[in-house]
Amino acid sequence: MVGLHKSEFANPVISWIDTRLPIFTMMQKEYGVFPTPKNFNYFWNFGALAMVNLVIMIATGIFLAMNYQPNSELAFASIQHIMRDVNYGWLLRYIHQNGASMFFIVTYIHIFRGLYYGSYKSPRELLWILGVVILILMMATAFMGYVLPWGQMSYWGATVITNLFSAFPVVGPKIVTLLWGGFAVDNPTLNRFYSLHYLLPFVLVGVIFLHIAALHITGSNNPLGIDVKSPQDTLPFHPYYTIKDTVGICVFLIVLSIFVFFAPNYLGDPNNFIAANPMQTPADIVPEWYFLPYYAILRSVPNKLLGVCLMFGSLLVLFVLPWLDTSKVRSARFRPLYRISLFLWVIAFVVLGVCGANKPEGVWVLLSRIGTFYYFAHFLVIMPILGKLERPLPLPESISHPVIGGRGGGPLPTGAAAKPMEKA
Amino acid sequence: MADTPAAASTHPGPSGDVTKRDLLQLVATAGAAIGIGAIAWPFIDSMNPSKDVLALSSVELDLTPVVEGQGITIVWQGKPIFVRHRTAAEIKEVQSVPLGQLIDPEPESARVKPGHEQWAILIGICTHLGCVPLGNKPSDPRGEFGGWFCPCHGSQYDVSGRVRHGPAPANLPLPPYAFTSDTKIKVG
After folding, report:
1. pTM of the entire structure?
2. Is residue A91 less than 8 Å (CB to CB) from chain B?
3. CA quadruple A252, A258, A259, A265: dihedral, nearest 10
């Protein structure tokens, strides 16, 4: 409908703006009164935490970029310049460096939340797919950011990861040359990685906007995985979840601070304190911890192309997850067998991470093969079959029921649902 | 908590007085504001000159090679510093100008070190909009007053670095400097 928006704000300035551009009405609708399931647990903090983390990364990144030199001759020294000469440069860099690890911790928990409570299922498939896009963009951003300090691990990480594309027949070597802008990782590679590392976070902001827009159409899932049936099942986002998110943000900032101030290099690799040397590969070459499981998948098979395909496939399989899961029940709380299978998958993921950190010999080869096998079997075999075979526990009638009747399922006396707000 | 959600953010007590929750809300908001301010400072301060820039805060110069009538330019803190060896006639002229004729009245004696009147040491940045005036080389245009001429908007300075013709509003500033010996200066 064409015409001015009818604003309900009393403040004349806000009302004047809101009439012409109803951003205040939108914020009030989406973050003020937005009806949110009232049974969230703390797993539902991690989306907000990831947002805060992204803001921290962009803020520190912009200020780091003011002092960084994306030139292979100067990059390594400019990091030392940031650490020693720039006022609080050490703080900005350590926040950015450890913020990347925190981002992956938060995102992996966020994804686990989605897997456990079935947040990827109808009608949230697109929301989930956008989330997978975000994950892949985030990984690309993190990888290119790790190259920028131009230490030994930066250089050889860049070499190994870009060489993954050489596995593809015929066009592979041409793609790699294109990625490098030369015949080895060198200054042109560093320049383009810097450019893209600055660009991609803003692409992420765009995709996250779509992710949240889709979320606000479908509404949030909840620990019971059942739909909101009445306003009694919800709470307004503010102040209930703004406050609950704030609690999580405080814990998040404490953990980040512990890393930044007490163990800033704990998650880093000592080899990256050595300037890049294109003539000398370090003895132990490993990616950052958050890539270790995928690295283990890559190394688990002796065939180059198959390894690369499995590694990319381990991410791509997530796109079709909503259709691989044939169960109508969302929350694993009511799926005893899926719950076991998912926990085994988490163990496989962690084991793969440990395998990735160790040299591919002896028991680690066997373990990474078992881990890789289970990683894919869980998604491609167990999930489709389990949906047909498994007998889920009875679902509660509504979100309000278990709040007053314990967490278990089964219909309760109807009278009990009448006054749930008293307890909320 | 028996309140309706809509009333949760504004909590008048039973008598409409300020409640404990109002206090908590104010304290929490103030705490968040202080926290944001505290974390904003490292970001802002990172834009200030870094330690390696501050370390370049002084330069030394040997004046012996600069002959009478010649001027040279040195760099101090990224800025051009004019060092001009003035002739006796030039010094006499700038000493005799009545202050009333000046745009930014300042006696010549306040712009040189006593005993070293032949040396004009100035920050060579036009006080109008920051260009570097010409005139250090004898072949440069020096303007009507024999000092410096700014090519950007035509400001003219005398050999004391005082503005004699606009649009510049003020004299060329003096850098902090001292003679460490008769023929050496330290700027900064």
Report:
1. 0.84
2. yes
3. 180
